[in-house]
Design goal:
Order of helices and strands: EEEHEEEHEEE
Strand order of the largest sheet: 4-5-6-7-8-9
CATH topology: tt1808, chain A
Strand content: 35-45%
Largest sheet: 6 strands, mixed
Number of domains: 1
Radius of gyration: 15 Å
Helix content: 10-25%
Oligomer: single chain
Length: about 150
């Protein structure tokens, strides 16, 4: 029933996959509903499970498909982590495993950050992951060796 999906550089996740009216769906634990299982969604669901189970990120402070307005146009951040005061702390952008993480992907998440002004940016295609910490005081950013645990943010 599950279409063949790419093996990811992430721990296996206990995804709930079903077929609804001929479409393969996956249950999104953050949106609390079934969504179409695309290659990008495959990456997102595995990454979100990784953040929650391995890195200690509270699901209650995370949101998928967060709508923002950028230059008068509606956009959606793939995933956003908030702090306990509900201010955005991290933007995560996902791509399908066969999509190379290029400067164009960094430019996309950087544009979202013009609106969100977060401390951390992550991009992942499920195979390769990049995380950087913003330093607004010095106008720079630093790539981190690994995705930080929630307690280290």
């Amino acid at each position: 029933m599950i279409p063949p999906m790419s093996v990811l550089n992430l721990p296996p996740a206990p995804l709930s996959i079903s077929k609804v009216r001929g479409r393969i769906m996956v249950f999104d634990v953050l949106r609390k509903k079934h969504v179409a299982l695309t290659p990008e969604e495959w990456v997102r669901q595995h990454f979100i499970h990784y953040l929650i189970t391995e890195k200690g990120y509270p699901a209650a402070l995370m949101c998928n498909e967060m709508a923002i307005t950028l230059n008068g146009m509606s956009r959606r951040c793939d995933s956003v982590l908030y702090n306990t005061q509900l201010h955005p702390r991290m933007i995560i952008e996902f791509k399908a495993p066969d999509v190379t993480l290029t400067q164009k992907v960094f430019d996309q998440i950087s544009r979202y950050n013009i609106v969100m002004h977060v401390d951390y940016l992550i991009i992942s295609n499920g195979i390769t992951h990049y995380c950087c910490r913003m330093d607004y005081d010095n106008g720079t950013y630093q790539f981190l060796r690994e995705i930080p645990d929630y307690t280290d943010l």
